[in-house]
Fold Type II secretion system protein H.
Amino acid sequence: MRNSAPDAGFTLIEMIVVVLVLGLIGTMLIARGPLHSTTLDLRGAAQSLALALRQARMQAIVSGAATTVTIDPVHMEYAQGHGARQALPRGVALAAGSATGVTFYPDGSASGARLALVEQGRQVTLRTNWLTGAVTVDGP
């Protein structure tokens, strides 16, 4: 009689070692705290502000009245009209020379503005075209 070939696969000990190694790696990652990216904070803040600007433009067109988004460089907040104030993430600031408000008109045009958000040497620039009211975001 022939001996059959051993079954291919992993032993219980090998599986336990793999689970322990994965557990140690997971513990080290959790101990580091949440993975945080300043670029994501800056980009997210810029996208949120751009969304508020675009919504203000649409509101001006629909309502037939001018709508303004104001930016408070002291408290690092922005608001559409008299609406709720939105805070920029901690560490994100409005760059010097940036506009502190943008007004959108019922025909879709805007006062035109350049807003720059900065964080740890990185910068994202939001531009509002005065003729079309289009908002663009440039940066990381």
About this structure: The first helix runs from residue 12 to 31. The mean pLDDT is 86. The chain has two helices and eight strands. Residues 69 and 80 are 4 Å apart (CA to CA).
